[in-house]
Design a protein that fits this description.
Layout (H helix, E strand, L loop, with lengths): L1 E5 L3 H13 L4 E5 L15 E3 L3 H6 L9 E4 L5 H9 L3 E3 L14 E4 L2 E5 L25 H6 L6 E7 L1 E4 L2 E5 H9 L4 E8 L3 E9 L2
Length: about 210
C-alpha cells in the first residue's frame, strides 16, 4: 500500500511513525511546503517532498487511485482539492442554520464549520469502535448524520474518512477524484468526516 501524508506537523509525524511501525512493507510519501519540518536524517522508508500538498494532489494525474491520502493539514483538504481542480468553484458562506443541525459545531470562518460527537479531547489512539472509548456509549456515525442534512439550495457531498490505525485516518485518491467529478453548477456543502469528527465547507460551482 502507498500512503501520502499531507502535512508534517505534530500529527503528520505521529501518522508517519505509526504507519512505518505497523506497515513495514508500505510505501510512504510526506508532502509539506516547509522543508524545515523534515528530519535531517531521512534514512527511513518515507520520501519527503517539499511541495504544496493541494497542488501536488490536484496535478497528480498519473498517480494510482488506490493510494491513500492521510490529511494532516490545518484546513479542509478535500475542499481545497476541489477548488484547485476547478477554478470556477469558490467558497461561499455556509447556510445560517447549519450549525444547529450538527453536534458541537465550531465555526472556523464564513465558509467552514467543524463539528464533533465529542465535547472533550479525544485520545489520539482511539480505535473508532462502535462504542465511544471515553464514555462507553454507542455513537451514530457523524458522516451518516451529515449525509442526511437537507438544506435549501445546497447539495451535500460527504467524503468519509476511514480509520487506518488508531489516531490515523484517510481516504483514497480515487475517492476524492470521484467526489470532485460530482461537482456541477450549483451550491454544495462538501464535508469530510469520520465517525466522530467532521468539517464542512460551502462551495459554489459556476460550470
Amino acid at each position: 500500500m502507498r500512503y501520502l501524508i499531507a502535512g508534517f506537523g505534530k500529527f503528520g509525524r505521529l501518522a508517519l511513525a505509526r504507519i512505518e511501525r505497523s506497515f513495514p512493507d508500505s510505501s510512504i510519501e510526506v508532502l509539506d511546503p516547509d522543508a524545515e519540518k523534515f528530519p535531517e536524517d531521512s534514512s527511513g522508508r518515507a520520501v519527503f517532498r517539499n511541495v504544496d500538498a493541494v497542488q501536488f494532489l490536484a496535478e497528480a494525474s498519473s498517480r494510482n487511485e488506490d493510494e491513500v491520502i492521510v490529511p494532516m493539514v490545518p484546513f479542509h483538504l478535500v475542499a481545497a482539492y476541489i477548488l484547485a481542480r476547478d477554478h470556477q468553484c469558490r467558497t461561499i458562506p455556509v447556510p445560517p442554520d447549519l450549525a444547529s443541525k450538527l453536534p458541537n459545531p465550531f465555526i472556523l470562518d464564513d465558509s467552514n464549520l467543524c463539528c464533533s460527537r465529542a465535547d472533550f479531547v479525544c485520545p489520539d489512539d482511539c480505535p473508532e469502535g462502535d462504542l465511544c472509548t471515553v464514555t462507553g456509549e454507542p455513537r451514530e456515525p457523524l458522516f451518516a448524520l451529515i449525509e442526511q442534512i437537507r438544506s435549501p439550495e445546497f447539495t451535500v457531498l460527504v467524503q468519509r474518512s476511514f480509520q487506518i490505525l488508531p489516531g490515523v485516518g484517510g481516504y483514497t485518491l480515487g475517492d476524492v477524484r470521484r467526489l470532485q467529478r460530482r461537482i456541477e453548477r450549483g451550491k454544495y456543502l462538501v464535508a469530510t468526516s469520520c465517525k466522530c469528527h467532521g468539517i464542512v465547507t460551502a462551495i459554489e460551482a459556476g460550470k
